[in-house]
Amino acid sequence: MADLLEVSAAPATGVRATTRSTPGHLAIDLDVTELAVPIVRTIVRAHLKLWGLADLTDGTTFVVTELLTNVLRHVQPTLRTGMRNTQLTLTRLPGALNVCVRDFDPALPKPTRANDEAEHGRGLPLVMAFADDFGCSPFKGGKDVWATFLIGNNGTNGNPQARETS
C-alpha cells in the first residue's frame, strides 16, 4: 500500500489537509496552496486505483487540478486564517464518479472563450470537455463546483477525444 501514496520529494511543511476515506468516498479538507495540489493529485490517483477506476485517472486528476487551481486564483483567503479553505470529495456512484470542490466564495465560475494568445481562461472549458457532466451548485456563503465521469463504456472516461467521436 505504501507505493500507492508515494509522494516524490514532497515538502514536509506548507500543506495542511485532513483526509477521510471510506470505500467509494474520499473527502479532503485542505488549505489550497501550490504545494497542496500535486499531493492531492497523488491521493486521488491512489484512491482511483484502489477503487478499480484507474482508467479515469487522467481526466479526474486534470479536473481536480483545474478546480483547485481556480480556487487558488479566484477565491480570496479567509480573514480568520489567511488561507483558501476547500473541501474536495470524490464519490463513487453506481455507474459514475463524482468530483466536487466546495469553497466559501459565492462567486460562481464563468467559463470563457480564451483566444490563442491568452494565458488563462481555458480551464473550465477543458473541465467540461473531460467530464461527462459539469455544474455548479451555490449555497449560502459558497458553492460546490462538480464534475461527473461515467464509468464503463457509456462515458468518455475522462477522455475528451472520446466525446468527439461518439
Automatic annotation (TrEMBL):
Segments forming domain Histidine kinase/HSP90-like ATPase: 36-148
Coiled-coil stretches: none
UniProt keyword annotations, A-Z: ATP-binding, Kinase, Nucleotide-binding, Serine/threonine-protein kinase, Transferase
GO molecular function per UniProt: ATP binding
Pfam assignment, any one: HATPase_c_2
Signal peptide positions (record): none
Domain of life: Bacteria
CDD domains named in the record: HATPase_RsbW-like
Protein name, entry field: ATP-binding protein
Organism: Streptomyces dengpaensis
Biological classification of the source: Bacteria, Bacillati, Actinomycetota, Actinomycetes, Kitasatosporales
